[in-house]
Amino acid sequence: MNFLLWFFLLVQLSLVSFASDPIRVGSKNFNESYVLSEIVASLLESKGFEVERKFGLGGTLVCYEALLASEIDVYIEYTGTVQQAILKGSKSGSTLDEMNELLGEEISLLPPLGFNNTYAIAIDKDLAADLSIKTISDLGRFPLLKAGFSLEFLNREDGWPNLAKTYGLSQNVVGIEHGLAYRAIKNGSIKITDAYSTDGDLKKFELIILDDDKKFFPDYLAVPIIRNDISAEAIEILSQLRGKIDDETMRSMNAKAVVERLSFDMIARDFLSIDGEIKKTYKDESLWQNLIKNTITHIKLTSIALTAGIFFGLICGFFAYNRQRISGFVLYLSSLMQTVPSIALLALMIPIFGIGEIPAIVALFLYSVLPIVRNTITGLRSIDPVLKKVVVAIGLTERQQLSQVLIPLAMPTIIAGIKTAAVISIGTATLAAFIGAGGLGEPIVTGLALNDVNLILQGAVPAAILAILVEFLFSLLERLILKPHMRQALNLN
Amino acid sequence: MKNTVELKDVCKSLGSKEVFRDLNLAIPAGIITAIVGESGSGKTTLLSLINGVGFADSGSTYVFGEPVTSENLLQTQRRIGYAVQGAGLFPHLTAEENISIVARSIGMNSDLIKKRVRVLLELVHLDQELLKNFPHALSGGQQQRVGLCRAMMLNPSLILLDEPFSSLDPITRKALHSEIIELQKATSVTIVIVTHDISEAMKLSQRIVVLKDGALIQEDSPENITSQPANQYVNDLLEAMS
Q1: Residue B117 above 90 pLDDT?
Q2: Distance from the A481 Cα atom to the nearest Cα atom in chain B, whole angstroms
């Protein structure tokens, strides 16, 4: 009960923090989306709006669900994606007006920004020259070339399955995170991947785009997708972006991010000031500031989830351990929980909890419960049966039996469970960045989007250090709680 | 003679195995009664019916003249001292904490607890200094003495001893035997001792109950059992001790 109350309080707090109504700008977790969303955010800020950035959300579904759930107000979508992934290939939605009709009253598309970032198929320049591959049709002659596609591309209507059908392709295909695909081509583990036609990385990795000779890929015009409840003035400002960014401009901004390593903020302000719309008011966070901010968020996410997990896990364990059927059920349920892939669990949270810290905390909480419940039940069950008989026979109430004898005896196993849960939480919390919860996953997600190993390490290294630190702290705690003579008595040494 | 424990037509199964069918047994007050039997004879199950760790499937169990129910269970258990093979001390508590665990949990005054512990230590010839030790730092005999103190802490009307001496060396065992007899004479508490060793039963008890496969084979004084064994099994038991 306490837990529910406490949780309710958290939800309340998060609502309060939205009271001042900033415009919340989302972005997907790839380079171009970051650049465009930063342009949107900077533009709004330059016009005096307060903006909240929720960048690096894990893909179209997460962004769109977040928009529906009113967790974000605007992000940049592509017309082809709206047709295929959001409107599920509905035939009538081919023009902007038709799409707006189908999207309903809450959501609208604003006029296109100008460029067309269609899906494309990319291969190594030299390989293409060697095999004289110029078009997607040419790939039909090389069924043995291994392809690695992003999971989104593998599952879209306008993705691989229908592309293969249209062109009669039969390549062997693996799923690969888009941010890693170009690297995989460079080291030769795959030969073909999906790309975006405005991708700034194509040049850097010396890849070329194959001609879509059968005109399979639909248009992917970039459009702001907004909630209609933002201010008319903001909508007016965003509409002014119409036609301002052509293919070449986009490609060059993308290259500035991935090749020249300029910050999104810098690129956006550069773009906007060229247009003569804002004066530069530069603020940049240093590496250390970011590191500290992300680490604090990370610790906050995991510690709240872990505290709730300990509380709930212990109560479940104490209640279930001597009830055979219930403990079987509890263990079964928590193992089942553990088999749900983390990113799927996070995505499932969005319709219920929106995006941000709360769904991340709930997901981390669900993950941390299993090891705690399991170890509590195992710890209590594996106590010497003679001691269990004595503790029942000498006239202690059930509560006294637990608090004075059974829990202290099970404590080493219980602490081991909590330790496992803590380490798992810290690892899993890096995925929370996909649903906008921040933390050390943020540089990892951004780094993947930018093909930037340095940035990835800025998240991965502190996360690993944090995990080791937690492991160490718990070992220390074990030493404090379990006095040496007791460890010996319990056969721990 | 008044009976401390009475079992009437008790049936009890553990899982699919029937332990007792219509068992009738009375344990007289103020003496030491020994329950003798091999493992599987039902002697441990019998103890668990008396101290409320288990309940009979049918029939009735009276302790101190009252049927044991879930309402009076804790009260009844606190009037029964319980010591087991290997002492069964809680490894995370000191000797003193082990002895006083129930007394503390029912809110007994700490001065009273200290006084009572001192009396008990003298009774079992244990050194005060050992009180602060954890069980693993005590010898087998010392552990068993602490276990006895724990059983006697609340001044029980009935003490159940479940093979308490079987893991001890012969010298310690002999010393503890005479301490138990002394203690019983001094307090005239009712004692039930469960053992597989009929010679131990002969030395300690005024009354012996022989159990085999859940059935009561013979119930009599040690002298009568020696002179008139009820059947071949009792005879074999007696011959096996030498």
Answers
A1: yes
A2: 11
Picking from A174, A209, A244, the residue at the C-terminal end of a domain is A209
Q: CATH assignment of B1-79+156-242?
A: 3.40.50.300
- Decide if B52 touches A, using CB distance below 8 A: yes
Q: CB distance B90–A400 less than 8 Å?
A: no
CB atoms within 10 A of CB A315: 14
Q: Give the number of domains in chain A.
A: 3
Taking only the tens place, the pLDDT of each residue in B149-178 is 999 999 899 999 998 888 788 888 888 898
User: Which chain B residues are within 8 Å of A388, Cβ to Cβ?
Assistant: none
- Per residue in A16-39, pLDDT tens? 444 448 899 999 988 899 999 999
Rounded Cα distance, A319 and A354, in Å: 32
Number of C-beta neighbours around residue A172 at 10 A: 11
Please give the residue of chain A at the shortest CA–CA distance from B101.
A404
pLDDT in tens, A366-424: 989 989 999 999 899 889 989 999 999 998 988 899 999 999 999 889 999 999 999 98
Domain extent at residue A189: 119-209
Task: Name chain A contacts of B152, Cβ cutoff 8 Å.
Answer: none
pTM comes to: 0.72
DSSP label at B206? S
Q: Is B92 in contact with A397 (Cβ distance < 8 A)?
A: no
In chain A, the percentage of residues whose pLDDT exceeds 70 is 90
Amino acid identity for residue A103 in this structure: L
Over 80: is that where the pLDDT of B1 sits? no
Could you tell me the CA-to-CA distances from A363 to A25, A317, B214 in Å, in that order?
23, 20, 55
Q: Does B167 touch chain A (CB under 8 A)?
A: no
* Residue B240 to residue B242: CA distance in whole angstroms: 6
Q: Of A38, A30, A36, A22, which Cα lies nearest the Cα of A112?
A: A36
In the three-class reduction of DSSP (H, G, I as helix; E, B as strand; rest coil), residue A234 is classed as helix
The beta-carbon neighbor of A387 closest among B53, B76, B88 is B88
Over the stretch A354-378, which tens digit does the pLDDT of each residue have? 778 888 999 999 989 989 999 999 8
**With an 8 Å Cβ cutoff, are B77 and A395 in contact?**
yes
Q: Are A146 and A239 found together in one domain? A: no
Question: Which among B84, B135, B137 has CB closest to A390?
Answer: B84
pLDDT band at A113 (very low <50, low <70, confident <90, very high): very high
The reply to whether A244 and A109 lie within a common domain is: yes
Contact list in B for residue A324 (CB cut-off 8 A) is none
**Which residues of A fall below an 8 Å CB-CB distance to B?**
386-387, 389-397, 400, 404-405, 408-409, 485-486, 488-490
Spell out the domain ranges in chain B. Answer: 1-79+156-242, 86-155
- Is residue A182 included in any domain, yes or no? yes
Q: Among B53, B105, B159, which would you mutate to test the A interface (most chain A Cβ atoms within 10 Å of its Cβ)?
A: B105
Q: In angstroms, rounded to a whole number, what is the distance separating the alpha carbons of residues B32 and A9?
A: 63
* Polymer length of chain A: 493
Tokens at A109, concatenated: 């598309």
Q: Are residues A376 and A434 in the same domain?
A: yes
Angstrom distance (rounded) from CA B242 to CA B227: 15
Q: What is the pLDDT of residues A173-193, one digit of tens each?
A: 888 888 788 888 988 889 999
With CB atoms and an 8 Å threshold, state whether A394 touches B90: no
**Residue A380: inside a domain:** yes
Nearest CA in chain A to B161: A390
Region A338-355: mean pLDDT is: 80
